[in-house]
Amino acid sequence: MRRWPRPVRAASRRRFTPHRARVIDIAKADYRDPVHAQAVVTLLDAYARDPAGGGTPLAAQVLAGLPAALAARPQAFSVLAFDQGQPVGLVNCIEGFSTFACRPLVNVHDVVVLASHRGQRVAQRMLALVEAEARVRGACKLTLEVLSGNRSALRAYEREGFGGYQLDPAFGSALFLQKKL
After folding, report:
1. Which among 11, 150, 29, 152 has a CA at the least distance from the CA of 93?
2. Residue 142, Cβ neighbours under 10 Å: how many?
3. What is residue 110's predicted lDDT score, i.e. its pLDDT?
4. How many other C-beta atoms lie within 10 A of the C-beta of residue 79?
5. Which pTM value belongs to this model?
6. pLDDT by residue (tens digit) across 35-65?
7. What was the pLDDT predicted at 21?
């Protein structure tokens, strides 16, 4: 008895179309490059204006001085994402030090993906470059803070291997606190 191939459903015949494939370029920022410097402040300001970033624009002196201040700190680095030359994502990182491991650690300080590019795994690709840079620096771990109500960001970080921090479950999980000066 001869078997005929099953009919293919229309949904599985979907063809690859160029407009579906976005080429997002990911690069370590060069703070002295005017294009990169402008991208860092534009994206960080967009994040600051968002409710998840506090809902307040950055001060003029921050916008003017941030790239030079970051460039002056060898422990700082940033990763940018560009879509056809337009900045769409940013991760700012600061190298710290783990006394328990006697090795550097990298704190992922800011993660920004413009609303137009969320859900496209831009953060995932930027965090992959952050991890590669952390490994080059000999870091023992990556750390980050996330607001408990930012569920989509929390899920994205968990997909990338981040999890809550605790040493002994009897003492609970670590909390992030601040004291403004």
Report:
1. 29
2. 19
3. 95
4. 24
5. 0.84
6. 999 999 999 999 999 998 899 999 999 999 9
7. 56
Residue spans of the chain under pLDDT 50: 1-19
Q: Which two tokens stand for residue 26?
A: 């990911």
User: Can you tell me the distance from the alpha carbon of 81 to that of 112, in angstroms, rounded to the nearest whole number?
Assistant: 10
Residue 154, token pair as written in the block: 């929390």
Domain boundaries, the chain: 22-159
Architecture of domain 22-159: 3-Layer(aba) Sandwich (3.40)
The reported pLDDT for the residue numbered 112 is 96
Length of the chain measured in residues: 181
Strand pairing of 103-113 and 142-144? Answer: parallel
Distance CA 129, CA 135 (A): 10
* DSSP sequence for the chain: -PPPPPPPPGGGGPPP-GGG---EEEEE--TTSHHHHHHHHHHHHHHHHSGGGTS-PPPHHHHHHHHHHHHT-TTEEEEEEEETTEEEEEEEEEEEEETTTTEEEEEEEEEEE-GGGTTSSHHHHHHHHHHHHHHHTT-S-EEE---TT-HHHHHHHHHTT-----S-GGG----------
For 111, the token pair is 């993660």
